[in-house]
Amino acid sequence: LYSIMSSSMFASLLLCCCLIRPILSTGVDFLPPTQEPVEIFVGRCYDYNYVYKKSYNCTQLGELFQTVVNTDTPESHMALIEAANISSEADRYLFWSGVGPASNTTDVVHRLSLSYPDRYYTLEDSLLGSCMNGLYWCNATAPVCTDTTLSPIWRTLSITFAKSTLGNWSALLYGSYRNGSIFRDLEVSSIDPARSGAITIMVIPRGDERCHSGSFVELDQELATRFPNQTATCVDDPDQVFYLLCASNFYSETCIEYQHIVGAGCDRFSNSSVAALSLGMGVLGVVIGALFMWCVRRQGYTVI
Predict the structure, then answer these.
(1) Residue 121 DSSP label
(2) Helical pair 152-163 and 74-84, crossing angle rounded to 10 deg
(3) Helix locations, 135-271, DSSP H
(4) How far is CA 10 from CA 23, 24, 150, 176, 189, in A?
(5) Would the N or C end of the chain have less CB density within 10 A of its end CB?
(6) Is 201:233 a contact under the CB 8 Å cutoff?
């Protein structure tokens, strides 16, 4: 009996290992599927129509998304993407890559596009990006439930989004121009040089990884080769990112960690900004004093 029980336990353990190993080998966390992903997709679509004054057929798109969830085939991907009809947003495209400090780059880049809607437009600001972002689902071809952003349709959507780029575009990158990122592997090579304008690369530095150094040398070379007729500018530690991180609370963990990474801090405000503020306050004081003296004399009082 003991021998039989031992053999049974060993077989069960072996079976569990065989089932778990494929999951671990993917390098992706095992995640439970989102409950009712299609209903959430459709709800987000209606909300998108309301907020941005659009008129997408959310019922039709929901049916196409249901097919994606069920089959996850290239044909189902393209049917949904073509029906959504990604439009070109001239001079506003913003790509991103990497995980930032306490607040990751995903949060920072979307706060950028939210704060400067006339300047920046990300994939997640598009209809499909907004509707699918953060959803998890499983099917026969994907036994491990993964984030939408790790799924085949997201990669196809990223390529389509990059191909629609028109005019000037930007990218916010944290730490490195890393291999395996969607931006490096798919998006840069999908942007049409004939449709591209000036290029701005914004870098949140990390150690020696900064503009024109480390892996960004490879980015310089790739941009020069692929976009020989466009001007490419690289900016370390962009001001707009710093201000967004520190606007709500200068002493927050996120702001302090970002200051530590880029060597920023109160220097931003203690030099030219503070000097300008001091000068302005001084001029204001002189004006108020002169106005007071004028009022006193007008009333006939003698100033001693």
Answers:
(1) B
(2) 40
(3) 152-163, 182, 188-190, 216-226, 239-247, 253-262, 267-270
(4) 21, 21, 35, 46, 50
(5) C
(6) yes
